[in-house]
Amino acid sequence: MEIDKIEKVHSVGYRLKDAKVTVNRDFKFNVAGTKTEGTQGEVINMPQWIGKILSDDNLVTLDSPDMITELKQALSKEKMVGEYQLSTLDPHFYIKLKESMKQLNGDNFDKVESIMLELFRMRRGKLVKIADSIKLNSELYNKLSVEENIFYKTIHDNSVEFEKQIRRDMNE
Fold first, then answer.
1. Are residues 76 and 54 in the same domain?
2. CA distances (Å), origin 100, targets 97, 143, 148
3. Which of 7, 43, 89, 131 could form a disulfide with 156 if both were Cys (CB 3.0 to 4.6 A apart)?
4. pLDDT at 147
C-alpha cells in the first residue's frame, strides 16, 4: 500500500482523537445531534478536528504539542542511540509535524524542514540496514511512524525477494 494512502487514513484517525482546548468565548453548537459547548476560560477535551475549526474562528485555543521541540528532541535521541538502533517516534509524528509546519513562514519553515530532513535521512539509513537483516517485530514496530512501517516492510520484502532470485539460480 502506498504511504500517502496510509497517511491519509491515519490523519483521519489522528483528527478524531481528543485534544485539549481553552475556550476563548462562550459557544454552544448542536450539529447533527452532537452537542458541543464551552464557557470562556474553561479547558475541555474535544475531537481534534472540531478544535481546529473552532480555533480557526478564535473561539478556542487548541493546545497542540510543540512539534518543533519534539522534532529537535527526536533528532537528538536518534543521534544518541547509535547506528543500528532506532529511537521511538509517535506513530503520527510526521503527520503532526507536517500539520504544524503549515503554520510557519519562509525562514522558519526552511529551518524546520532542514531538521526534519536530517532526522528523516538518518532514520531512513538505519531502516534500510535493519530491514535488510531482520523481519519487523513488535518492539521495532512500536518505534516507527506509520510511514516508516510501510517503508520498512517494502525494503524487507524486496530484500528477501532479491535474495531468493539470486539463490534460485545457484540451486539449478
1. no
2. 5, 21, 19
3. 131
4. 92
Q: What is the pLDDT of residue 155?
A: 92
Q: For 77-132, what is each residue's pLDDT tens digit?
A: 999 998 889 999 999 899 889 888 888 888 899 999 999 999 999 999 999 999 98
Q: What is the largest CA-CA distance in the chain?
A: 77
Total structural domains within the chain: 2
pTM of this prediction?
Answer: 0.72
Could you please report the per-residue DSSP string of 98-143?
HHHHTT--HHHHHHHHHHHHHHHHHHHHHHHHHHHHS---HHHHTT
Whether residue 1 is predicted with pLDDT greater than 60 in this model: the reply is: no
Cell numbers describing residue 154 = 517494502
Mark whether 56 and 88 lie in a shared domain: no
Residues 40 and 72 grouped into a single domain: no
Q: Are residues 112 and 161 in the same domain?
A: yes
Q: Could you list the residue range(s) of the whole structural domain that residue 14 is in?
A: 3-62
